[in-house]
Write a structure and sequence with these properties.
Layout: E1 6-11, E2 15-22, E3 36-39, H1 52-56, H2 67-76, E4 82-86, H3 94-105, H4 107-112, E5 113-118, H5 126-143
């Protein structure tokens, strides 16, 4: 199990970034460089009025509108292992909302999720996100 790569799925209210095939060790040559991006639907629909504070906390999103998550699911392919990375807590954590969605509608995808980690995605660079995910995954591989 420890030699298998993981797909890292970083979810925010604006987009999802998917790195396919992150190896558990940084010294391995096959590592992803550019993520696949999935844009969220337009967040400024005319019929939704929210205050700025609500927007920044993710309260403007229709969590029961599955278009965004369905687009992400379509891009995952047949990855054996998925590691979700989210930002925030509660309803504003898009990784948690995605997990809830796939738990209800895509149980096979939900079973492939091996973990969910939280990071300050607004402050982390993509290499830092990948390093955080790699450290988590290396620890996971040692436990199983």
């Amino acid at each position: 199990m420890s030699d298998h790569a993981v797909d890292v799925v970083v979810l925010t209210e604006r987009e999802a970034r998917i790195w396919h095939g992150l190896p558990p060790r940084a010294d391995e040559h096959a590592h992803p460089t550019e993520p696949e991006r999935v844009e969220a639907p337009d967040q400024h629909r005319p019929h939704r009025h929210v205050r700025t504070g609500q927007f920044h906390r993710g309260h403007h999103l229709d969590h029961d509108d599955p278009r965004y998550f369905e687009d992400v699911v379509a891009r995952l392919g047949d990855a054996e292992r998925l590691l979700l990375v989210g930002h925030g807590r509660g309803r504003s954590n898009m990784a948690r909302a995605f997990m809830d969605h796939v738990g209800r509608r895509h149980r096979t995808v939900a079973r492939r999720v091996i973990g969910e980690i939280e990071g300050d995605l607004s402050a982390l660079t993509e290499p830092e996100i990948l390093e955080m995910a790699r450290r988590w995954y290396a620890g996971y591989c040692q436990r199983v």
